[in-house]
Design brief:
Layout lengths: L1 H30 L3 H11 L5 H33 L1
Helix pairs in contact: 1-2, 1-3
Length: about 80
């Protein structure tokens, strides 16, 4: 159960961090008027070449956090049924 709890915490960090990065990338993409401004803002705020690259990374992080969360939920259910 220890690793299940740690996995849930890590899944939350990955998921919410990626959601925040995705929101920031969308803000940068929608607030810049030209590609040069997009590159400058993405390099400054997102540590990425463009906002699109940051969005790609954020979506992968969201999916990873979601998958880890599902696996931890399955582990918790199996652990509860073993004890009963």
């Amino acid at each position: 159960m220890f690793f299940t709890r740690i996995g849930k915490v890590v899944a939350h960090f990955i998921f919410w961090g990626s959601a925040f990065r995705l929101a920031t990338a969308l803000f940068v993409a929608l607030s810049t008027t030209d590609m040069e401004g997009n590159r400058a803002a993405a390099a400054r705020y997102l540590s990425a070449a463009t906002s699109g690259e940051a969005m790609d990374e954020a979506v992968v992080g969201l999916l990873l956090g979601l998958a880890l969360g599902v696996l931890c939920e399955i582990s918790a259910r199996i652990g509860r049924s073993d004890r009963a």
